[in-house]
Amino acid sequence: MSASAVRGRLQWSVAVPILAVAVLVVSWLQHSHWTILAVVAAVLIGAVLSAVHHAEVVAHKVGEPFGSLILAVAVTVIEVGLIVMLMISGGDNTSTYARDTVFAAVMITLNGIVGLSLLIGSLKHRLVSFNAAGTGSAVATVIALAGLTLVVPRFTTSAHGPQYSPTQLGFAAVASLALYVAFLFTQTIRHRDFFLPVTSDEHGRMTGIVDLDEDGHADPPSGREAGLSLGLLLVSLISVVGLAKVLSPTIESTVKSLGFPYAVVGVVIAILVLAPESIAAVRNARRDRVQTSLNLAYGSAMASIGLTIPTIAVAMIWLSGPLELGLEPTQIVLLVITVFVTGLTVVQGRAYALQGFVHLVLLASFLFLSMQP
Fold it and tell me: Where does the Sodium/calcium exchanger membrane region domain lie (predicted)?
């Protein structure tokens, strides 16, 4: 790559986050005109692309699985802030906002990101391979988190409606955080090799771990470059969520005018917030690094639950009104189907295009039934 091309990439990746912050400040004060909203939408897309770029720079510096972990946690922390801000704003539908957003994030990651990664990766490489042991443990943790926080509240009797009592919510928050921390220890310290990209034979069977130092890519960035990218990554993510918050009233009014349920708002916000991870996962799949794509998908699902529920549980000390976490029957059925299909997908440690397509059909079903329950 020429020096001018490098400078061009550096200039846009630095300029876009700064522009996004400027637009966020201006639009936060005045965003009623359609031209301002159009600019916000355009800059939001740029901020998403910038976040992906800087996340990949940081990931190249720290290596896997830390790179995908940084992006997953950073996006989820900002997502939690967005949920809390919207709950503080009040309204008739805020009691289910956390549930709808978290469930949408789970379905988008388990079916959307995974489905796209498997489909695109297998169309280019015929078969894609990953470590079934590491991926299986990630799926098991996601299932436990989703069941404990989104399914069980539908069937408890200590509180009225699909919600936990304060004591039950406290237990669920501690259990969720404990599960997430235990998985992080496993992924980054105890069994890190289980989450590294793998090599495979012509039949898609895993033969070893990719030598990340001999992959033909450029040398890792310097500590200064990685530090700059980390800072710009956080700025980009804050801008993504802030601009999504600016657009949320327009999204809410559009959803209402179309006659869709309020849960669709959570779906749209989740799609916007998860866009950086989705793009990063697809890029890795194209490079035959599906393990990294799955790390992003399942790590994001875990972080979305394991960080959001404890934070919301603490926030409920100050927030008024109920917190309904229990899923509706249709949502539970979709989650159960997704769990079974996910288990069949990861059990062999290899996949082809059909499996990715099945996950995408499940995502389409979720999106359609969100609009037409």
Answer: 34-188, 229-371
